[in-house]
Design a protein that fits this description.
Elements: E1 4-7, H1 16-26, E2 30-35, H2 38-48, E3 51-54, H3 60-73, E4 79-82, H4 99-109, H5 111-124, E5 131-135, H6 157-176, E6 183-187, H7 206-217, E7 228-230, E8 233-234
Parallel strand pairs: 1-2, 1-4, 2-3, 4-5, 5-6, 6-7
Antiparallel strand pairs: 7-8
Bound molecules: NADP nicotinamide-adenine-dinucleotide phosphate (NAP).
The site of NADP nicotinamide-adenine-dinucleotide phosphate has 28 residues, from helix 1.
Amino acid sequence: MNKIAIISGVSREMGLGYETAKQLKAIGFNVIITAREIAKANLLANQLGVSAKQLDVTDDNSVSLLVRQIEIEFGKLDVLVNNAGSYFDQAGNPLTTEMQFVKEAFDTNLLGAWRMIKAFYGLLEKSESPRIVNVSSGAGSFGDPVFGLAHHFSKVPVYGITKLALNGLTVKIATQLKDSRIKINSVDPGFTATYPGTEQFGARSVSEGAKGIVWAATLPQEGPTGGFYRDGQKMSW
Ligand SMILES: NC(=O)c1ccc[n+]([C@@H]2O[C@H](COP(=O)([O-])OP(=O)(O)OC[C@H]3O[C@@H](n4cnc5c(N)ncnc54)[C@H](OP(=O)(O)O)[C@@H]3O)[C@@H](O)[C@H]2O)c1
């Protein structure tokens, strides 16, 4: 049986999720793309020649239903890519931001990945080489020289803090799973042109951005776990 990969947050052809699905399919994965709106996922799945399922990562019922579907169809999961993420509060101000916005951002960017990992843990354990990729961001690190948390250019406080927390989740799950075959890493795709016009500000191609996600999804057994990477290179937290 081919390896099975699930990717969350695949609703746009320009997005990193779509490109990750394309690259994983090209190397033989059976890819299931997911989106909140199944019509969007179906359209993209038809283009890619993969399958689609509905998934809202903030909804326990939606997550449980997907787990049951994958269990019945495949009985295992090899790769989980937690790509769904949003709430890019450009020019945000942590002193005036609405707490409802903060809660929703955490529910998607942090708890969404956490819910998915908890829900799919049992099926991942049934894989011979299970991998979890948390799609993070340099905006959630202290080390990123341009977009990092403490850099003056970084004006995405809520988004940045959710990705900082996501990196913390990666470390804690990796520690908990140190005796398991499951590897989990955070990946920063880098500033990537997933929205029109961003190239002119230096964003790189989506195919380049997605490569690091695919790298972490296909790590060999001696590969790392519990780290933060861009393009397969370790980044500082
Ligand atoms: N592009 C960059 O420069 C960059 C840099 C660093 C990190 N990232 C990260 O890369 C990931 C993909 O971003 P992208 O740039 O490709 O943008 P994107 O296409 O907007 O991806 C975000 C996806 O998350 C989905 N989503 C939001 N809330 C969701 C929920 N509750 N349940 C399921 N899906 C949900 C969105 O779907 P809807 O259409 O339903 O809203 C959308 O498909 C994100 O985690 C982002 O933070 C991107």
